[in-house]
Fold this sequence. Notes:
It is a single chain. The protein is an alpha/beta fold. It folds into two domains: 4-216, 3-Layer(aba) Sandwich (Rossmann fold), CATH 3.40.50.300; 226-264. The chain is built from ten helices and 13 strands. The strands form three sheets. The protein has a six-stranded mixed β-sheet, sandwiched between helices. It has a four-stranded antiparallel β-sheet with strand order 2-1-4-5. Helix 3 (93-103) packs parallel to helix 5 (137-149). The model has no long low-confidence stretch (mean pLDDT 93).
Amino acid sequence: MNAIDVQGLTKMFGSTQALAGVHFSVAEGELFAYLGPNGSGKTTTIRILTGLMRTFGGTATVAGYDVTKHSRKAKTQCGVVPQAVNLDRDLTVSENLMIHGRLFGLSGRSLRDRILSLLEYVELLKKKDQFVKHLSSGQQRRVMIVRALVHRPRILFLDEPTVGLDPAVRRQIWMLIKSIQRQKTTVLLTTHYIEEADLLADRVALLCEGTIVDIATPDALKSRLGNWALDIYENDHMETHYFKDRQDALNTASTPQASVNIRQVNLEDAFLQMTGKKVS
């Protein structure tokens, strides 16, 4: 059984189609990245899968539970880290986590021990009695991830978990996400950061205007273009050519051009070639 299974998912907002027949599945223990520009339907998909929004059409199951017919049971299997920080800033870290645990029927010493263990895991144990409003943005993100894990969910949904963070803090969050996956938790990650999907994901879905244009491993998506990219800048215009071998790129670059740059192919190249749009 897949951890997540989505078949023909559609969603309308008035006359605007946010999702146009989305199909994908996520295996148990997989880290699956949902990559696309802002407004492509990433957050809408997560809100449907976590029971916060109704579908217009299609079906979706989470941990074997239909998200429409068995929404409450599906929610118990999920941990959710939304894009916006929604901790109670006037409560301490521990108080935020205790409230969440009680909402899932946890209490007493087992809940306290679980919270202390998770805070130690994310290196925030010394901050347990500090008010959230006094934490850095990166620390608040880590608390949100801990909150999502308190009730031991089988599936973790991360909606743009590193948005607005500086590069050093983003990398700390990346390592935390990978360590969570190693504990056998299934992770669905939405992002518009190319390097985030490339580094973390087992597979990537490329989403554009509510439609998935391709799903594959990061390496497979990139290799369809080649291994090396040659950017040619001339007359305020840039063209990119792709090559299997670096020497072929070097040979082309040696011809007279205004300016050239040779680099390795990345996921944004793959997305741009398939959709004509940048991930931004």
